[in-house]
Amino acid sequence: MRFMLRLKIFFILLLTVFCSVGFAQVKIRLFANQSPESSVFSVTEGTYELNLFNGEILSVIKNEPVIITRYNGKLAVKKRNAKGFICDSLAFTGKTGNDSFSLMMNGKSRIRQYYSGDLCCLPDLGTLVFINISDVEKYIAGVVMAEGGPGKNLEYFKTQAIIARTYMYKYFDKHLADRYNVCDNTHCQAFNGLSSDTLINKAALGTRGLVILDKDSTLIISAFHSNCGGETSSSEDVWLLPQPYLKSVVDPYCHASRNAIWRKSFPVNEWVSYIRKSGYNGKMDDPSVFNFVQKSRLVDYKTGSFSMPLRSLRSDLNLRSTFFSVYAIGDSIVLKGRGYGHGVGLCQEGAMEMAAKGFNYKQIIDFYYFGVLISDIKNAVALP
Ligand SMILES: [Zn+2]
Ligand SMILES: [Zn+2]
Questions:
Q1: Is residue 274 in some structural domain?
Q2: In a domain, 305, yes or no
Q3: Which listed ligand is nearest to 29 at the C-alpha?
Q4: Do 239 and 347 belong together in one domain?
Q5: Vertex 112, ends 55 and 42: CA angle to 5°?
Q6: For the chain, how many structural domains are there in total?
Q7: Alpha carbon distance 17, 32 (integer Å)
Q8: Considering the domain boundaries, does residue 154 fall inside one?
Q9: Residue 142 in 3-state DSSP?
């Protein structure tokens, strides 16, 4: 048993060494929330070497899919029309310098996605762990594709690329204990594989290495949201932690956008029951006592001597934003709201409109983050 444990540690160390990357690369755990049981690796460009770390090294070319399955705590690996192998871990290494592959997962759902660079795999806690070692800029383009929203302007994509790169480097060691840098779901940043949008790829390469630093040259928390409703939130009003660069700003650019306004109504008795549970013990006879107006952003909902944080109402009632007014209309309590998201940092729909009006990425970033500097990652004081 102890020998098996040592053997396992040895293979993990071997894989860690093999998967160690330089500054221009990032290790991404793929399909992190899918719990895949098996998958199919296919070369889409170039040639790969497959190392099974048991003395076997195979060459893999196009049209030679490799099936990887979890088998008694190990991996079963088989190329089409060839004999199968059992191993503890494996690594695909690109040999031409321009190598890419697809990975099809059989787990909760069946998904095929496209990647470039190298790939490691090992079994862990009833699932397969896939780690892609990717060029940073290809990863950044993939994140912008997944998280960037419907904007279609180069300067907007450059803005999103710089935000995504800043976030990646700031949290580069978030998963270090797990032997990778980032996972591919929203716990880190959504990444569904390579970007197929040439404008996004151009934006990532055109801003290569650029990140946002505060006045002390530290990477900022590059928060963003869908639509601020005309005014962004200060970070202390949402997350209780003040940041000099995350201060409320009046945004004239997002009023006409998709997520500018929302409306939600509740039967009066449902509202009364919720507000009572939250500690309200004032008058109930006239629903207009619950009326509340936000012309500019406030922190608390107030009626009479009762108050509670707007962020609590937002999460309890699943509201699009904390920027809303309350009106008693007939038998209903109607919430008329503005914006979508927490409201801190960059407003995506405002940024899209700024880009459409001809502002460049520097002007957009300066507008939403106070007193920041756009600089190469080499100039950040706390390098990952
Ligand atoms: Zn993560
Ligand atoms: Zn806005």
A1: yes
A2: yes
A3: 1
A4: yes
A5: 35
A6: 3
A7: 21
A8: yes
A9: helix
pLDDT at 108: 65
By the CB criterion, residues less than 5 angstroms from ion ligand 1 are 183, 187-188
| Residue where the block lists tokens 């936000």 | 294
Question: Is 179 found in the same domain as 34?
Answer: yes
Report the separation in Å between the CA atom of 154 and the middle of ligand 2, taken as the mean of its atom positions. 19
The residue assigned the tokens 């070692």 is 133
d(CA 200, CA 223): 20
Q: Do 333 and 359 fall into the same domain?
A: no
Helix axes 136-147, 198-206, angle to 10 degrees: 130
One-letter amino acid of 177? A
Ligand nearest to the CA of 259: 2
Q: Which residues surround ligand 2, an ion (CB under 5 A)?
A: 228, 251, 254, 347, 350
What would the pLDDT profile of 33-44 be if each residue is shown by its tens digit?
A: 888 889 999 999
How far apart (Å, rounded) are the C-alpha atoms in residues 61 and 64? 6
Q: What are phi and psi of 198, to 5 degrees?
A: -65, -30
Q: Which residue has tokens 């490691």? A: 120
Looking up tokens 């762990």, which residue turns up? Answer: 129
pLDDT for residue 327 is more than 80: yes
Domain assignment of residue 324, yes or no? yes
Q: Tokens 């998963």 sit at which residue? A: 175
Task: Kindly state whether residues 156 and 124 are assigned to the same domain.
Answer: yes
Q: In this model, does residue 154 exceed pLDDT 80?
A: yes
Does residue 228 share a domain with residue 172?
no
Structure tokens at 45: 């460009």
For ligand 2, the distance from its centroid to the CA atom of residue 227, given in whole angstroms, is: 5
Query: Residue 158, class by beta-carbon neighbours within 10 Å (0-12 exposed, 13-18 middle, 19+ buried)?
Result: buried
pTM value? 0.88
Asked if residue 238 and residue 169 are part of one domain, the reply reads no
Whether residues 322 and 288 share a domain: the answer is: yes
Q: Say how far apart CA 322 and CA 218 lie, in whole Å.
A: 29
Residue 293 has pLDDT above 90, yes or no: yes
